[in-house]
């Protein structure tokens, strides 16, 4: 059994989309300070690229949620395995997520962070798999929308493989 990878978004296309997201965020926040909350592990490359392109001053912190094992479906049971170290009360927070699928992970993180009293809490997702949504989560900034397919590359993994690939691919099991 191997994986066949089919290229979906090139690194150039990703870069253009990240530029566009960064421009919108820069306009919305102007000189106001932002705390980027990078959702580990999948968002580490996206967050690094995005933060370097946004003009507003920013800090970064990391959170990690577990739900996926080594398969391609979400269990719906989310546990936070690494929390923020930053006090976000009164701050402008943008959750940076690689991909929203069922929505369980992002809903858990958003609800938890909103209870901490941020000034603003926004969500920026590189990819929105809308058709897979099982719980409602509104994303303020979305890079790519697609219906389904399991994606890897640019931080996204399948069983910890392929995160380092510069482009994004659909995985076909062979
Ligand atoms: P959700 O809770 O079902 O929305 O799943 C969200 C998390 O599952 C994301 O943060 C990803 O880490 C992971 N995930 C969802 N879809 C994919 C995919 O197509 N490729 C790689 N990881 C994915
Ligand atoms: Mg993720």
Attribute tags:
binds inosinic acid; alpha/beta; binds magnesium ion; 3-stranded antiparallel β-sheet; 23% helix
Brief synopsis:
The chain is α/β, with parallel strands linked by helices.
DSSP strand count:
9
Which small compounds were modeled alongside the protein? inosinic acid, magnesium ion
Flag low-confidence runs.
Answer: none
Order of strands across the widest beta sheet? 4-3-2-5-6-7
Query: What is the 3D form?
Result: globular
SS strand fraction:
25-35%
Q: What does the largest sheet look like?
A: 6 strands, mixed
Helix residue percentage: 10-25%
Global structural class: alpha/beta
* Sequence of secondary-structure elements: EHEHEEEHEEEE
Please provide a written account of the structure.
The protein is of the alpha/beta class. It has three helices and nine strands. The strands form two sheets. It has a six-stranded mixed sheet with strand order 4-3-2-5-6-7, sandwiched between helices. Strands 1-9-8 form a three-stranded antiparallel sheet. Bound molecules: inosinic acid and magnesium ion (MG). Residues 39, 42-43, 97-98 line the site of magnesium ion.
């Amino acid at each position: 059994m191997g994986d066949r990878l089919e290229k979906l978004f090139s690194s150039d296309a990703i870069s253009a989309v990240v530029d566009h997201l960064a421009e919108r965020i820069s306009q919305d926040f102007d000189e106001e300070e932002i705390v980027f909350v990078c959702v580990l592990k999948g968002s580490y490359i996206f967050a690094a690229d995005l933060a370097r392109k946004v003009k507003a001053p920013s800090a970064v912190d990391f959170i990690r949620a577990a739900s996926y094992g080594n398969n391609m479906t979400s269990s719906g049971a989310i546990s936070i395995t690494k929390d923020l170290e930053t006090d976000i009360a009164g701050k402008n927070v943008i959750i940076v997520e690689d991909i929203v699928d069922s929505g369980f992970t992002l809903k858990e993180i958003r609800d938890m962070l909103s209870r901490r009293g941020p000034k603003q809490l926004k969500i920026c997702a590189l990819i929105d798999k809308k058709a897979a949504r099982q719980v409602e989560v509104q994303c303020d900034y979305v890079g790519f929308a697609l219906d389904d397919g399991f994606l890897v590359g640019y931080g996204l993994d399948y069983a910890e493989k392929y995160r380092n690939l510069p482009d994004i691919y659909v995985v076909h099991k062979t």
